[in-house]
Amino acid sequence: MKSYTFLIASLSSIAFLSACGDSDSNNDTSKEQLTIKTSIFPYEDWTKKIGGDFVHVSTVVPVGADAHTYEPTPQEMIEVAEADAFIYNGANFEAFAASIVSAIKNQDVHILEGATQTSLIDSNHDHGHHGHNDASHDHESNGDVLIEGLSDHYHTGDSVELMIDAEEDTHSNNWSWYTKHGDGEWELTEHEGTNEYTGVVNESHQVKAILHGEEVAQSDVITLTIDDHDGHSHGDEDPHVWLDPIRSIEIAASIRDTLTQLMPEQEAYFIDNFESLEQEFQELDQAFQELADESILDTFIVSHAGYGYWESRYGIKQIGIAGISPTSEPSQSELIKTVELAQDLGLNHVVFEPNITPRVAEVVQNHLDADSLLIHPLEALTEEDKENNADYFSLMYENIETLNIALND
Description:
The protein is α/β, with parallel strands linked by helices. 36% of the residues lie in helices and 21% in strands. It is built from 11 helices and 17 strands. Strands 8, 9, 11, 12 and 13 form a 5-stranded antiparallel β-sheet that branches. Strands 2-1-3-4 form a 4-stranded parallel β-sheet, sandwiched between helices. Strands 5-6-7-10 form a 4-stranded antiparallel β-sheet, with no helix packed on it. Helix 2 (41-51) crosses helix 6, helix 5 (245-262) runs antiparallel to helix 6 (267-294) and helix 8 packs across helix 9. The protein starts with a helix and ends with a helix.
């Protein structure tokens, strides 16, 4: 924090002088180009595609760096203060963003927080029952009867999948499911004669299952809890929202609106460019959906759990060796569970990221005797990406190729 204190002090004083000398420049909508600073590469790429000839865009996080831990130099922070707009992700993703925003909020810089322009999923959002964090799975028991599934972290409209897991489940046709809302009575559901309970959860309620016939058994009661957050950016939400093509459309639309506000005479130009970008997002979404529909497996193991949006939208599940942040290393027992789960699922590849190589991911790969693959988080480019003129879509399609191998080989 000491380094940030120094940077903020330097930035505030220089930005003040800059504002005094250039008070009219940021309000001059007749200028030829807008200067835009972004915190991560996707926002830089989308801004360039929407703004075209009328924007000069650069990213604070340099090539090859990790946006989770990067600290800007004083010069980089000054450049943000002198820009027309600063576009960052938020949701506690970039450690440096809050300091920059605090320092420039009274300057003539338009600030756009991307994560607040759409909805976010929980950082432990895991409805597929293959997540790294076993604490998100509930196994409620009564004797030998278990209900397996998730009893927490639901949002209104989420799908729910529960299943009876009994030691001798030979009477699956005799199971009946009951629900109870508030202080009401237990009611028999349509899930009769099956050991599975599926549906959509629209309010918190309790669930139990009863086995009828010669042998009678009853599970413990579990509670399906809805946790709808107010607002968007909370510390327990997954910030990697740019990996979802559909949510990315909403963020890109906000970038279009920001550019239009700063340069209204080019509104039609920005709208046309956005519509072309939107079409690319939709085509990318379709490619992900086809991958999910046609793949043999639905789970891959990756160095850190930054890909939850693919599970949320397409059902492509991740086993994150490290947590939502790559610096969050698992315990020994968690590593053992990860290896065992990967073995049970028959996973033959461990997926790494180009700018981050956690030691624990290499340990897991060695234990599994698995091949390695490369997946791109898109937070920042590599030198090779830059040489190849990579953009958001080329990297995302490379990710689809990687997933195709991981899920089908």
